[in-house]
């Protein structure tokens, strides 16, 4: 216990690395067929992209490319009742109220896939991970009780609607990462022990707070809390999608510290593509050797050119690739 607590305290004052390179937009694809535009999380599973909506507790969406726009195909599932979250009563009730008002009692915020075709969905409301296998019923992973106690001990998971926002797994399904959204934001890691998952010396990789002004391209100046909105695992490296600062950062697997960041502010904050939200709307991330794919959760908000559909942005990989040093 002392080990993870000390690590959290040492990382508490970490400062994000400034983005030094602007990503180039290679394409954008509006997505038809999703009510209200509420998509969150992105993963390549098998032969296509999959996403979830924080308003739906019973379906996944497969993104289907089209000539002028992409569409979605639904896959239905039935989630059993989630295990207890371990949160205090007040936070549980606040999250439940959000679900009653807007829909989506489980509040799925991210999706990832392993090499065997299992899909993993992170529930912000229950602080749980639902696994949906290629064949058979969905089930909740057995997460260690220490996960929540360690996270809250490091200052994470303190505000309702600001709990777990991103998820990534390695292809062998031996390591699982979770992102705590904001105020404070953080990174958590779990290791598989046969059918269970453990903290293996400590679940908290990173805990940091602070505020930062939105990018100058946004035209906004009021500082906003630093956040994470999704995770991606690529070539033995972990990447974070940072919604408010409009950037993608490569982070150390051992400490969670930012090693290098790339901004997509120039490409997406022009007058035609700007949504005007102070915290940004990017909520899904997938990386491969050729580029990055970012999915936005715009709700019913229109951007500058009047477009209200969810959008999938495709950015070219930086020169030298994602693993290059500055």
From TrEMBL:
Residues making up the signal peptide according to the UniProt record: 1-19
Annotated InterPro entries: Phytase-like_dom
Coiled-coil stretches: none
Domain (Phytase-like) ranges: 37-244
Classification via Pfam families: Phytase-like
Entry annotated with the keyword Signal: yes
Protein name, per record: DNA topoisomerase IV subunit B
Record organism: Pseudomonas flexibilis
Biological classification of the source: Bacteria, Pseudomonadati, Pseudomonadota, Gammaproteobacteria, Pseudomonadales
């Amino acid at each position: 216990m002392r080990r993870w607590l000390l690590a959290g305290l040492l990382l508490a004052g970490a400062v994000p690395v400034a983005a030094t390179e602007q990503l180039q937009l290679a394409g954008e694809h509006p997505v038809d067929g999703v009510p209200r535009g509420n998509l969150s999380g992105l993963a390549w599973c098998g032969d296509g992209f999959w996403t979830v909506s924080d308003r739906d507790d019973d379906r996944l969406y497969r993104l289907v490319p089209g000539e002028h726009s992409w569409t979605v195909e639904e896959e239905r599932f039935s989630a059993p009742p989630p295990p207890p979250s371990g949160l205090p009563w007040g936070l549980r009730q606040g999250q439940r109220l959000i679900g009653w008002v807007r829909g989506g009692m489980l509040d799925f915020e991210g999706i990832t896939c392993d090499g065997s075709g299992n899909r993993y969905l992170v529930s912000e409301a229950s602080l749980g991970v639902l696994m949906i296998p290629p064949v058979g019923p969905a089930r909740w992973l057995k997460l260690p009780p220490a996960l929540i106690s360690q996270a809250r001990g490091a200052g994470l998971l303190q505000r309702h609607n600001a709990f777990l926002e991103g998820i990534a797994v390695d292809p062998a399904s031996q390591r699982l990462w979770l992102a705590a959204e904001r105020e404070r934001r953080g990174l958590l890691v779990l290791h598989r022990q046969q059918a269970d998952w453990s903290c293996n010396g400590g679940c908290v990789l990173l805990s940091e707070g602070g505020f930062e002004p939105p990018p100058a391209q946004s035209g906004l100046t009021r500082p906003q809390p630093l956040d994470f909105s999704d995770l991606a695992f690529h070539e033995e490296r972990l990447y974070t999608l940072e919604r408010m600062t409009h950037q993608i950062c490569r982070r150390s697997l051992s400490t969670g510290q930012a090693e290098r960041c790339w901004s997509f502010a120039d490409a997406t904050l022009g007058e035609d593509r700007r949504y005007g939200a102070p915290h940004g709307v990017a909520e899904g991330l997938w990386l491969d050797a050729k580029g990055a794919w970012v999915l936005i959760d715009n709700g019913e908000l229109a951007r500058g050119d009047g477009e209200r559909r969810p959008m999938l942005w495709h950015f070219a990989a930086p020169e030298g690739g994602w693993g290059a040093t500055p």
